[in-house]
Design goal:
Elements: H1 3-10, E1 24-30, H2 37-47, E2 53-54, E3 57-65, H3 70-82, E4 88-90, H4 95-100, H5 102-108, E5 112-114, E6 133-135, H6 140-153, E7 158-164, H7 167-180, E8 185-192, H8 200-208, E9 213-217, H9 224-232, E10 238-241, H10 248-254, E11 262-265, H11 281-295, H12 302-321, H13 331-342, E12 347-349, E13 352-354, E14 370-375, E15 378-381
Parallel strand pairs: 1-3, 1-4, 4-5, 5-6, 7-8, 7-9, 9-10
Antiparallel strand pairs: 2-3, 11-14, 12-13, 14-15
Family: Belongs to the leucine-binding protein family.
Pfam families: Peripla_BP_6
Organism: Sheuella amnicola
């Protein structure tokens, strides 16, 4: 039994096979290629560590690549639900794809645990489509609040913003404006495409506004482009990023230009540096040890932690759904599984503590966020001062 499995057993999650039921089938849609491949790779690494059971029963995982393409993600959703009759879907890891898949969830009555960040995926939770949607990454509002609090502690008065020109960047812009509420004052706002090769024009406009700090709302390696351009143009203020940068590829692409970056992240990313009092430390550290034993030191990321969190959430909910008497692979079981995911309370996963409800299909609170920085090419804990 692995370190993580012993930990799961200790906190009451099932790791052994009990009463015989039909096999649980989980579909996974992830970006293994395309612009979001770096994010998908971290999730895929965690998928390889998923136990072969869910709720104590045999589980089968069907993994499909959406190539960071929204239309392909929808095709994958339809294949997984119509041909494979999956009991739930994990993924996608980009917001536009998760939003596009909502229609399929409603039509087929299939629960989804998305690995993308935007709150728009799950809000409002009572929406006919979104009642089937859940997600592991922290809501933008929770993480934007952490950034604003850090900025205020550092006496930052003005800030510039540049984000993806899609639902991820737009969502972050909305939540950051609401969290800041004029303190700090946003003095310039720009956007860019994930596939852009240059953001020189946007960066010059940001610098001309002379902000004390700049927030970049992007994810994966594309989020490095504005920061590298800011460095090349001589910007000396603080630079913040979102929790979407948590990939090893971002560190490689950014190099010395991203040293000192400040960003909010799940506790799992910096598990070894957390105070022992942090409620998620024990579970986060158990998974970090397992993950890095396979992939090497300092390889743990937000996306890996979210992917293992998805398995832990399913494992807990499947065990309860099986008591409904419904058979896996049927509409009745999918509905029962959806209901049990929604009833999850007090479940500790690598990136926080989940308390999901009818009103909240994400379920994290402040225990799911810490401030971090990039130091010596690694993600490092940056506790509040």
């Amino acid at each position: 039994m692995s370190v993580l499995q012993r930990m799961l057993s200790a906190i009451g999650l099932s790791v052994c096979v009990s009463v015989s039921h039909a096999e649980i089938t989980i579909g996974v849609d992830i970006s293994q290629t395309g612009p979001a491949a770096a994010i998908g790779a971290q999730s895929s690494n965690a998928f390889a560590l998923w136990p072969k059971t869910l709720g104590g029963q045999p589980a089968r995982y069907i993994v499909l690549d959406d190539a960071t393409d929204v239309s392909q993600a929808v095709k994958n959703f339809r294949k997984l639900t119509s041909e494979n009759k999956v009991d739930a879907i994990v993924g996608p890891n980009i917001t536009p794809a998760a939003l596009a898949g909502l229609d399929v969830l409603q039509e087929t009555g299939t629960p989804m645990i998305a690995l993308a960040a935007s709150a728009a995926i799950v809000q409002p939770a009572n929406d006919a489509k979104r009642r089937w949607a859940f997600k592991l990454p922290q809501n933008d509002a929770l993480m934007a609040g952490a950034i604003v609090e850090d900025m205020r502690r550092r006496n930052i008065k003005t800030v510039g913003f540049i984000g993806f020109a899609d639902s991820y960047g737009e969502g972050w812009s909305k939540e950051f404006v609401a969290a800041a509420a004029g303190n700090p004052k946003i003095v310039a706002t720009e956007s860019f495409q994930r596939s852009d090769q240059s953001v020189a024009g946007q960066v010059l406009k940001l610098i001309s506004a002379k902000p004390d700090a700049i927030l970049i709302a992007g994810s994966g390696t594309p989020a490095a482009l504005p920061q590298k351009t800011l460095a090349q143009r001589g910007y000396k203020g603080l630079i913040y990023q979102t929790h979407g940068i948590g990939t090893l590829e971002f560190l490689k692409v950014g190099g010395k230009d991203v040293e000192g970056t400040l960003f909010p992240t799940g506790p799992g990313v910096v598990a070894r540096e957390l105070p022992d009092s942090h409620e998620a430390k024990k579970v986060a550290l158990a998974f970090t040890d397992q993950y890095e034993a396979k992939y090497g030191p300092n390889t743990m990321t937000q996306f890996a932690g979210d992917a293992m969190g998805a398995w832990m959430l399913l494992d807990s909910a499947v065990a309860r759904a099986l008591k409904s008497g419904q058979t896996p692979g049927t509409p009745g079981f999918r509905a029962a599984l959806r209901d049990e995911i929604e009833k999850t309370r007090g479940l500790i996963v690598p990136n926080g503590v989940l308390n999901i409800s009818e009103q909240d299909h994400q379920g994290f609170d402040e225990r799911a966020r810490v401030m971090a920085t990039i130091k010596d090419g690694k993600f490092s804990y940056a506790p509040s001062k």
